[in-house]
Write a sequence for this structure.
């Protein structure tokens, strides 16, 4: 075994980490962020309670409770707000619409089970087109919460495609009793409409007056995300388990003052596009003490629609989280064209993820991502790269061939700079560091400090500049340890 020692003092590093290893609450992380992090506003609610049972709810797992959810949430909101109680039981329902000043409290023992009947999910307006209404949805709200220790089950198996390569023989046999299989036999789809939906949507491009009826043939393909709260202020998600989503699990969009804490996310590893927590273009965000299993990225930052050069995603603190299976533990991208800054990730574990720290984008959906601070990250059994920067990311969907997905865009070029990554330990990875920029925009100004990684391959870079490695140790048999192409100012101390 060859050791690359870069002036590291392991004793000092251990002392640093042991000093950090003290219980710290959410407030501590916010106050000690390496930028001026605003204190997020946690919504508060009147003490009034509204029980779904009093509004016709039945918890037998067979009675449809869509109207009962609507009635109790509406009554609570119209009364000035309060807590909606969902007691133990199995509450079958179609989509739930959230409202301002309502705390949807799902008690331990309660399962909110979304119907597998896709016909009961309406289409709603989304930008210039339409989308399927998410199982839990709220738009333009203020003071809203989802709390309790209950479970939300999205019945995702009724929506998602399944790649044969990801299925066991028993799964593939069971899935084939319904739905359809692609011509090449590689992907199962829940319906012909789902399988053909992507091609059908191409016929609507440029059609400015497309109606809901125009989008209906692609409805099964447009599978919804489990929880979407958009354009809202003072949002709290605290306690529940979210599982089996048709698409992403949690996807807050354009929110201000968002707190997600003490939740469990569980999508199967083979769940297509089954991201865990995806934050889109939001500000003043805290993600604290969450545990994620995902079929795609674990905890991910996204940003689109930038205006006047202002970063659309900023002031984010992520702490004390665990990500098990996922394509990445902490992830940025792929869409970063809205810009990002001021993100602090601290004291997290990534175990068995494909990639540990994953930063990705490509020309056509990239933007400026800067001032990212990642500290005290402890990883084990990472399948590919422990730390990855990739500006050639290809988003390949089910049934697509990666070789046919080409990056032809010349605008929205990603720029990754001013990353500060420190106090990282990774036991077992395929590659320690992989950094790939663009010739016209290298990945630049990265600082790695107090890092220990054991991996088959060491440090690989292309089109990168001004990379600082201080007290870094790569344990590897690779020779050479450093493989650089079109890279400059790689400073090893």
């Amino acid at each position: 075994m060859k050791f690359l020692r870069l002036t590291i003092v392991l004793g000092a590093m251990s002392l640093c980490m042991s000093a950090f290893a003290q219980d710290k609450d959410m407030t501590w992380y916010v106050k000690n962020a390496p930028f001026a992090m605003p204190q997020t506003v946690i919504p508060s609610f009147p003490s009034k309670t509204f029980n779904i049972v009093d509004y016709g709810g039945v918890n037998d797992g067979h009675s449809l409770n869509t109207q009962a959810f609507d009635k109790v949430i509406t009554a609570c909101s119209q009364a000035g707000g309060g807590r909606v109680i969902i007691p133990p039981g199995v509450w079958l329902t179609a989509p739930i619409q959230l409202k301002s000043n309502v705390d949807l409290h799902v008690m331990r023992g309660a399962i909110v089970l979304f119907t597998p009947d896709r016909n009961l999910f309406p289409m709603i307006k989304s930008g210039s087109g339409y989308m399927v209404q998410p199982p839990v949805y709220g738009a333009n709200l203020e003071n809203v919460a989802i709390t309790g220790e209950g479970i939300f089950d999205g019945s995702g198996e009724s929506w998602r495609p399944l790649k044969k390569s990801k299925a066991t023989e028993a799964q593939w046999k069971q899935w084939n009793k319904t739905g359809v299989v692609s011509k090449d036999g590689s992907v199962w789809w829940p319906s012909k409409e789902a399988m053909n939906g992507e091609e059908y949507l191409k016929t609507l491009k440029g059609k400015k007056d497309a109606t809901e009826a125009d989008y209906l043939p692609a409805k099964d393909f447009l599978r919804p995300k489990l929880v979407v709260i958009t354009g809202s202020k003072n949002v709290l998600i605290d306690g529940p388990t979210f599982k089996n989503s048709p698409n992403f699990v949690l996807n807050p969009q354009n929110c201000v003052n968002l707190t997600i804490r003490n939740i469990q996310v569980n999508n199967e590893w083979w769940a297509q596009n089954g991201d865990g927590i995806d934050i889109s273009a939001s500000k003043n965000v805290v993600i604290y003490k969450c545990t994620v299993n995902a079929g795609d990225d674990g905890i991910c930052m996204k940003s689109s629609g930038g205006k006047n050069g202002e970063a659309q995603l900023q002031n984010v603190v992520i702490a004390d989280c665990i990500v098990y299976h996922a394509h990445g533990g902490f992830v940025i991208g792929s869409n970063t064209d809205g810009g990002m800054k001021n993100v602090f990730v601290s004291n997290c574990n990534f175990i068995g993820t494909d990639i540990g720290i994953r930063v990705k984008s490509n020309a056509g959906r990239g933007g400026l991502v800067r001032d990212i601070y990642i500290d005290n990250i402890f990883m084990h059994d990472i399948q590919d790269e422990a730390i990855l920067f990739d500006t050639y990311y290809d988003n390949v969907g089910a049934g697509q061939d990666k070789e046919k997905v080409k990056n032809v865009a010349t605008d929205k070029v990603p720029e990754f700079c001013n990353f500060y990554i420190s106090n990282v330990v990774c036991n077992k990875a395929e590659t320690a560091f992989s950094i790939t920029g663009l010739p016209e925009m290298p990945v630049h100004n990265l600082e790695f400090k107090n890092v220990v990684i054991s991996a088959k391959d060491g440090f690989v870079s292309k089109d990168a500049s001004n990379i600082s490695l201080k007290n870094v140790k790569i344990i590897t048999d690779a020779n050479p340890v450093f493989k650089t192409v079109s890279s400059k100012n790689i400073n090893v101390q």
Residues 2-159+223-492 form a domain with the Pectate Lyase C-like fold (CATH 2.160.20.10). The helical segments are 10-20, 26-31, 66-78, 169-175, 192-202, 212-215.
